[in-house]
Every structure is written in C-alpha cells, then in structure tokens.
Amino acid sequence: MDINNSVALVTGANRGLGRAFAQRLLERGARKVYATARRPETVDLPGVEVLPLDIADPASVRAAAEAAPDVSLLINNAGISTGTDLVTGSLDVVRHELETNMFGHLGMIREFAPALARNGGGAIVNVLSAMSWFGGKGANAYHLTKAAAWAMTNGVRLELADQGTLVTAVHLGLADTDMAAGWPVDKIAPPDLADAALDGVEAGSAEVLADQWSRDVKSRLPLTPEEFNAAMGRALAALMAA
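That's the SDR family oxidoreductase sequence above. Prediction below.
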C-alpha cells in the first residue's frame, strides 16, 4: 500500500517509537494520523488526531475502533517490559505483560480488521523484537510475549489475506528510547525504525528486520538450542564490551 494519503492509527504515540511513527507518517503524506495513548494529554505532536487508548482494556480498544472507522493502516507499537523472569517472577506480572504485548495487539487487530476490509484491505504493522527469538535472565517474560506476538502475527497474516490486508512483522534489537536507556550500546534511531517499517509496508513485505542485530539473531535460528545459546552469549558479551 501507499503511505501517502493513508489513514493511520498508532498505538503508544506519545513517546519513543510510537511518536516517531506518527511523525514520519505525517511527513510521508498520510492524510490523517490517529495518535493514541493511555494518557492522551501526553501526546504533543502537532497535526495528529489524539485518541485515548489502553490496548489492555477491551472496552477502550472497542471505543477507539468506533472513533476511527476510516483507518487503512494500523501500527501496533504500544508495549511494556517489566524485567520479570518466568520461574521466580510474579505470575500476575507475567500475565499483565502477555495481556499487553500479545493479547493487546490481537485485540486491536480483531476490532480494526472489519474497518480495514471496508477501506480496501490496508495494512497492519506489529512492532516485535529480536527477542521474539531469544530470552535471557531478567527478560524472559518479555521474550515470552514477543515470541507469542510473532506467532500471532504469522497466524493473523494468513487469516486476513483473503480481505487483502498486509500484515508486517517488524523486528529490531534496541531502539534509542526510554525502554532501552540503561543499555550503553548502539541503538537504532526511532525515525530510522519507522522508515524501515513504512518502507516494508510500501514494498508489501511480510517481515522487516530493521537492524543488523535482528538479522544476526534470525540467521542463527537453524542452530541447535545449545549452539544458539552459546552463539547468543558470545554476541551479547561482544555487544557489551564494544
């Protein structure tokens, strides 16, 4: 699809990647951009139409779909990272992270799919992560949610193909946002990530590997678990030492 003259809705558009998506959509000629956030008063980008939205609240998601029936491009960006482990961490926190990062995106797709069909098919972008494919102590709940979101993305892509809706999975290592502020490593700039994703949509791509880190991680998937974990350990050590 063509970004120019599209009508887009971006979740988590008050900061970080979401704000960059909304800004680049405007700059690339989108006719309308709905910028959503749990606290809509924190959206400070001129030129957008602000909507309140909590993707973990089905009633809020339904209200957003009713308020934005003209959407042709859905950007599922909002998410959380709680730093929780699966065995020793709070199960309630793990469930909350899963409800937000996977079921929240799925709920958005379910509510907006009819509008996308009415508006010609359009496209969905799910912002995922290289951690769709690997975990680590202190981040395994996040890994679980992104792996589940990857599988969900692959499933809805098949289900929505008949209505002409493109579903694009976007994977990245770290972006230069508040969520990654504690990592002293190279990070992709949010506008560059947004452009890579939007370029992928315009090219009809099912998957965008937005940086070298995500490309390297995916290339290791054919390895055995032992080989994969050893390779990832070496890669992470080298990343932190750089």
